[in-house]
Amino acid sequence: MDVIGNVKHQTIKPPEEEELPTSPGHLIFDADFESGNLGKVEYCGNNEYDLYIRVDTCNQKYRLWFHYSVTNAKVGQTCIFHIVNFSKGRSLYREGMGPVVRSTSRVNWTRLSQSQCYYWKGESGGYILSFTFKFDVDERYEFAYCFPYDYARMQSKIQSLPSSLVDRRVLAHTLQKRNIDLLTIGSGERHIVVMARVHPGESPASFIMDGFLDFITSEECNIAKYLRDQVTFKIIPMLNPDGVALGNYRCSLMGFDLNRHWRDTNPWAQPGLHAVKAFLIGLEKEHPVDFCFDIHAHSLATGAFMYGNVVSEDQQSEQQAFPKIFSAFAEDFSLSKTNFNKDAVKSGTARRVLRGLFPKSYTLEVSFYNYQKDLRSVPYTQKAYCELGENLARAIAEYYRKYPTL
Ligand SMILES: [Zn+2]
């Protein structure tokens, strides 16, 4: 990886030790890897560091996703990191969310506890996330905004699926020659499109996709078999792989928010999206498509919910039937947060543009942080995101049991 603007194996020393050879305690920061994002580090004394998120490639507007590694800490060294340049002030960090961490010997990501984190308004008016961290072993540590799920991981996920059940095709290549994969699973009369990661920083969407793929390709599960008999799934697991690999939050390599470009895709500027749109138009000509789900993550909301389109009154109850069933299967899915809108700001989104093709086109949103259960806040884990994907599949099966003729 070589993303211009990312910190590359940079040693940060106190100014008075600048001339000394590097020794333990001089932290070495790096974000030169897939999905890495860290633009600048400044030492501010007393083991405190100001960290700057790198803007999305070719777009100055968005700074939220960060992912970097630290090595060469002294055992027992406690540091304070300040993430100083988020592009928006409102954040789930206000609600107790913490960044995630893992290290060489502790490979599973965990969230930092609320007591280690502090989200506050700096003197310049921007919001700052400060967190303390004690390095207890001499090894490599990684920190990120939320659980990373990068392009390489999705590629190996796809490889691992049973080839007897999954037809894999590459729909197009992105500008950086990554795959836009299309998976066809099942052979039923019904057709459903599921896609994710048009917004690269929204990594929970990939865990949902991961859980969904595992469920519908399960060889033992009867519900999965039923689904494969009833439905032909057309799945595009990663719509913006360049953005994911580059560590962008919102945009493609060329700085486009692809989810505002469905209306006017361009073959040279957005080759992946252009190919996906052409494919979906062709698909609809061959078969009616019952549902289209586009999976995202939300930086302010809690829980999971859907956005749907406003439709004529006689179609309304049909439009609401699926979210109702989903809410019965997933305790984190909120029917009351689900809404049907026609905001101008959402006019280039998949849901809005594709509704002409697929009337039941939904955006599935999930919180980067938590959901409410019995008035308690339950932080999402990677597993809980995967389970939401499984529950999406279960709800689809239930929908067809309940409404075999819709
Ligand atoms: Zn999104």
Automatic annotation (TrEMBL):
Where, per UniProt, does this protein localize? Cytoplasm, Cytosol
Q: Which Pfam families match?
A: Pepdidase_M14_N, Peptidase_M14
Family label = Belongs to the peptidase M14 family.
Which PANTHER family does the protein's record reference?
Answer: CYTOSOLIC CARBOXYPEPTIDASE (PTHR12756), CYTOSOLIC CARBOXYPEPTIDASE 6 (PTHR12756:SF9)
PROSITE patterns found in the cross-reference section:
PEPTIDASE_M14
Annotated InterPro entries = Cytosolic_carboxypeptidase, Pepdidase_M14_N, Peptidase_M14
Signal peptide positions are none
| Organism, as annotated | Oikopleura dioica
Q: What is its main location?
A: cytoplasm
Q: Which domain of life is it from?
A: Eukaryota
Keyword annotations: Carboxypeptidase, Hydrolase, Protease
Active-site residues are 365 (proton donor/acceptor)
SUPFAM superfamilies (alphabetical) = Zn-dependent exopeptidases (SSF53187)
Q: Which cofactor does it need?
A: Zn(2+)
Q: Which residue stretches belong to region Disordered?
A: 1-21
Peptidase M14 domain: residues covered: 145-400
Provide the reaction this enzyme catalyses. Answer: (L-glutamyl)(n+1)-gamma-L-glutamyl-L-glutamyl-[protein] + H2O = (L-glutamyl)(n)-gamma-L-glutamyl-L-glutamyl-[protein] + L-glutamate
Q: What is this protein called?
A: Oidioi.mRNA.OKI2018_I69.chr2.g5867.t1.cds
